[in-house]
# Entry
Amino acid sequence: MFNKIKYLITLILVAIILYAFTAMYSFHQIHKGIYFNDKELIENYIEWPSVKRNAKNYINIKILNKIQSEKTLDNLGDVGILLSGFAGKFIEIAIDTYLNSDGVILLLERVKKKNEIPKPSVVTLLGCFMIMENEGINSFYINYEIEGKEYPIYFVRDGIKWKIKKIEFPKKLFEKIK
# Structure
């Protein structure tokens, strides 16, 4: 009986370790995709429809709030609503066109902060466990910080892989829109 319990506990521990390792490995694969500008890795570990929908909703809400707060657009009445609709459609087209693995690769090629990203290694693979915040059994997030602003990046489990599903933007990201 004692051997069966020991076997069951070992099996449970191995399952937990493998479960945690799949999350760490997926996060590490995205890190490698960004560091090496690998389109295939970026494509495989990001749930693009969900990320696009998230970005569209965020930007459309910000534009609508900005348009509604402008006093000059109040005088336009229905034309102001039409203008906000055009702005929303323009944003949707831009996001559908550029928010994909090709767009990310182009953006990464233009960014000059490549030396700030650590080279993927076993240390970064194991270290990613330290920055992962568990949100449940099937999701976790990391807080990516750039220029003092935090961007929570949410991952969800997709089989044995974990994919980026949502990116939250800081509340004051588009505060300078005039």
Observations:
- The chain has one domain: 2-167.
- Residues 2-35 form the longest helix (34 residues).
